[in-house]
Specification:
The protein is of the alpha+beta class and 174 residues long. It has eight helices and five strands. Strands 1-3-4-5-2 form a five-stranded mixed sheet.
């Protein structure tokens, strides 16, 4: 039985950066054992995976997922415009200078970002679970969220070998 998402659930998904059309029914969540009221109480991080990485996570071979620092930093860190402005000023004096430094070197941006986290300017967002979509389908699996760090991942699990990434640690399947 398919049940449409409530407006509150759609708003919640939009806040999380998920297109409600991808999760067009509560059925997706109920397959994972969630009651519809539980959806609103959980902070879920959503990712779309290529089949290769999906299969490795599902089989238990890959206990973590990797995401690019430059692209994912606003989604995985507690960042607001005021805090980001302070970060820019504290690190470089002005936006153009930081932008130039970062365009020249992703490693420099990563170093500055790690320092900002250490200094308490930013911190990692906290989630209850990570929900993976197999490609752009309604096939999902959900795992406990165990935390985020920045570092070099395992290349055979999909991490690049030339730069640091966000490492999303997974717990047991729920």
């Amino acid at each position: 039985m398919k049940t449409a998402l409530t407006p509150e659930q759609s708003d919640h998904l939009i806040e999380l950066g998920v297109d409600p059309k991808l999760a067009s029914s509560q059925n997706i969540y109920m397959k994972q054992g969630y009651e519809s009221t539980e959806i609103m109480n959980k902070r879920i991080l959503y990712f779309v995976l290529k089949f290769q990485w999906w299969d490795m996570i599902e089989s238990g071979v890959k206990p973590e997922e990797y995401r690019d620092i430059w692209h994912w930093c606003t989604r995985l860190l507690n960042v607001d415009r005021e805090g980001y402005g302070k970060f820019l000023k504290a690190r470089s004096g002005d936006f153009e200078d930081l932008e130039r430094q970062c365009n020249d070197s992703l490693k420099e941006f990563t170093r500055l970002l790690k320092q900002a986290i250490e200094d308490g300017i930013f911190d990692f967002r906290d989630f209850d679970a990570v929900c993976f979509h197999r490609g752009y389908s309604n096939i999902t699996m959900t795992y406990e969220f165990k935390g985020i760090s920045i570092g070099f991942g395992v290349t055979r699990w999909g991490a690049p070998d030339d730069r640091e990434v966000f490492i999303i640690k997974l717990g047991k399947r729920i």
